[in-house]
DNA sequence: GCGATCTGGTCTATGTTCGAGACCGATGAC
DNA sequence: GTCATCGGTCTCGAACATAGACCAGATCGC
């Protein structure tokens, strides 16, 4: 399977994981998805909960996630405006394998930090 | 568990998955790891197999992966120089949950592309 | 001897992306 | 009148990525 990660350049069908990671593998996408996991959120709510994301990146990230079908955006014509974001079925299903990765990250965080400390000591 | 992704900003211990994704979630790291999965590779071999990575980014990516303990680097004092890279145990174990994600990506690629086409049609 | 070639990088110039923060328009609270 | 709320967009400088030139040191063909 990993072969497909490597050999996709010559194939018509672009490599799935490269494609997926190009989108969600950035600084913010995963964080936004995780923040949406518990339920519906408004724009400024996401902004506050994530904390260190700029409006611009939040906006851009949400739009990309929406385009890729991970989140749904619902605008209520009110003043002040109310815009709600929620995970789609695709978005939810994505979080399943992601949870595995998070579990791995938590289990191996210490090892990584140890390696990092060892590297800088060297 | 996903809560920890969101609430880590206030915690002393940095959020594991944010930390991990900051490192391997970039354009190239996963690709390098996948290319190293079958076994030992030399620098220029990685360059050729990946194809569209610049030497600079390959160099930088490998150094970071080495610092984090995902790959091991072995220099042979020969001329021309020979430098070999291989996955460490940590690197191998990381590929396990990653495989899940790749599987998901392959299974849902069509859905994502459909969403994307739908979005641009709109 | 003389140049070309191989290797694993680094350096530089250029282009792309990112974050901080100003700004917007309509409305309600004071 | 004035300020805050909301979901963004715009602009600016800074950070980062990319392509490609360049390097040393030995070996090869001639």
TrEMBL record, chains A, B:
Domain HTH hxlR-type: start-end pairs: 15-113
InterPro entries (alphabetical): HTH_HxlR (IPR002577), WH-like_DNA-bd_sf (IPR036388), WH_DNA-bd_sf (IPR036390)
PROSITE patterns recorded: HTH_HXLR
One Pfam family linked to the record: HxlR
Keyword DNA-binding found: yes
Gene3D superfamilies associated with the record: Winged helix-like DNA-binding domain superfamily/Winged helix DNA-binding domain (1.10.10.10)
Entry protein name: HTH-type transcriptional regulator YybR
Natural source organism: Methylobacterium frigidaeris
Chain's gene name: yybR
């Amino acid at each position: 399977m990993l072969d497909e990660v490597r050999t996709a350049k010559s194939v018509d069908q672009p490599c799935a994981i490269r494609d997926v990671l190009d989108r969600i593998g950035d600084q913010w996408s995963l964080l936004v998805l995780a923040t949406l996991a518990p339920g519906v959120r408004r724009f400024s709510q996401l902004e506050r909960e994530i904390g260190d994301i700029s409006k611009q990146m939040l906006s851009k990230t949400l739009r990309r996630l929406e385009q890729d079908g991970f989140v749904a955006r619902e605008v209520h014509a009110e003043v002040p405006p109310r815009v709600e974001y929620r995970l789609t079925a695709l978005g939810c299903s994505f979080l399943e394998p992601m949870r595995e990765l998070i579990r791995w990250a938590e289990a191996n965080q210490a090892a990584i930090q140890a390696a990092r400390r060892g590297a800088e000591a060297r």
